[in-house]
Design brief:
Shape: globular
Order of helices and strands: EHHEHHEHHEH
Radius of gyration: 22 Å
Strand content: 5-15%
Organism: Azoarcus indigens
Distance between the termini: 69 Å
Protein name: Putative nucleic acid-binding protein
Number of domains: 1
CATH architecture: 3-Layer(aba) Sandwich
Oligomer: single chain
Pfam families: PIN
Structural class: alpha/beta
Strand order of the largest sheet: 3-2-1-4
CATH class: Alpha Beta
Helix content: 40-55%
Keywords: Magnesium
CATH topology: Rossmann fold
Length: 151
Amino acid sequence: MLTATTTLASLIVAENPARYAVEPPLVVDCSVLAAVLFDEPERPLAAEQLAGRSLHAPWLLDVEIASVAAKKAAAGATDSAWLGLQDYDCVELVRHAVEPLALLELAQRYRLTVYDAAYLSLADRLGAPLATFDQKLGRAALAHFQGRGLA
């Protein structure tokens, strides 16, 4: 009778740290991103919500972040303003065009600024959650999504 010794090979899986799964989308407004970029007190909470997400915003976010930086610089925090903008350049963020009629409709329905309506409109269009520290916008988003059974 023949006997054979079987030695099982050790399995080695060497994996590149690339992301395979799609990160869930999150529409992020200026208040949340500015908290992270300019090291605001809300930074830890904001960073926790952004982690592992694909970030989306209307194109106007660039203007709003620059406005925050300008206010920081005018208040004497020039270094913070410059560093925040440099960090912003490194943020992986998908910028989206806006639909003016949708903005007007949402702004009127929820008594929002058209700027805030842009974030709500984008979240609605993408079927994604909206992260904001703006209480008025947050309440409008909750009402909007609950009215549609999305929240």
